[in-house]
Task: inverse folding
């Protein structure tokens, strides 16, 4: 694959005698939506944790936009444009929808000891952050909930809030999403994927998505990888991957 934005090279991750990842290789195409599938226990979440820096691989490398980021901490990867969402939204319960969204933009010049007392140093940044936050929650169709706390939102609305937050950094290159439609009704699930596809088309942001609702996801993704027993067993066009004999066998337990 030419010019991938994310590469995983020979990654191994062991937990005791268990090789949760056993020599995984991936190339994620730039500006596309890539689907990562596999039965429970296949290694998908472990791989996402290695890519995002939660786990350090025992072997192998992770390369983002040509740069080896294997040794970087999660916050350092975030600043380089790698954004991660989780299956269970990790929101600030005491903040509103607008505040949760605004919080995801980093680099406020007012966070310094001296600059913090100089309003002119940070007021412009904060005004732009609020304007951007309003644009993001408008785009994800939750602007009417701007003053609501997470406890007042449905599961699907919390997922859309996570999408809003993912778009707040100045330089997102790739967004990792772990089951973005888990627990939401089919109509809202399609809406979430529609927003993801629109983001890809309008801003050129790459997505790597773990998803079990394949009947919904397959209509929106550009490429797919399938895992089983810690290995990649198939990759290519989504329809071809879903019908690959090794993929069918892994789901049936054969």
Result:
């Amino acid at each position: 694959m030419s010019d991938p934005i994310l590469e995983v090279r020979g990654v191994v991750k062991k937990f005791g005698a268990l090789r949760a990842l056993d020599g995984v290789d991936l190339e994620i195409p730039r500006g596309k939506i890539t689907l990562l599938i596999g039965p429970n226990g296949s290694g998908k979440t472990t791989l996402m944790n290695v890519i995002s820096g939660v786990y350090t691989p025992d072997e192998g490398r992770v390369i983002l936009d040509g740069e080896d980021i294997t040794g970087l901490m999660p916050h350092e990867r975030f600043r380089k444009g790698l954004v991660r969402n989780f299956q269970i939204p990790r929101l600030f319960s005491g903040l509103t929808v607008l505040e949760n969204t605004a919080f995801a933009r980093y680099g406020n010049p007012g966070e310094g000891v001296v600059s913090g007392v100089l309003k002119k140093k940070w007021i412009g940044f904060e005004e732009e952050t609020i304007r951007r936050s309003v644009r993001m929650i408008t785009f994800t169709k939750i602007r009417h909930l701007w003053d609501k706390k997470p406890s007042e939102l449905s599961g699907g609305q919390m997922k859309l809030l996570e999408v809003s937050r993912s778009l707040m950094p100045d330089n997102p290159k790739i967004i990792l999403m772990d089951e973005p439609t888990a627990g939401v009704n089919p109509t809202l699930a399609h809406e979430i994927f529609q927003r993801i596809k629109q983001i890809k088309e309008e801003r050129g942001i790459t997505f790597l998505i773990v998803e079990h609702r394949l009947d919904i996801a397959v209509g929106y993704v550009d490429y797919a990888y399938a895992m089983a027993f810690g290995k990649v067993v198939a990759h290519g066009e989504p329809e071809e991957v879903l019908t690959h004999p090794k993929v069918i066998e892994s789901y049936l337990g054969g």
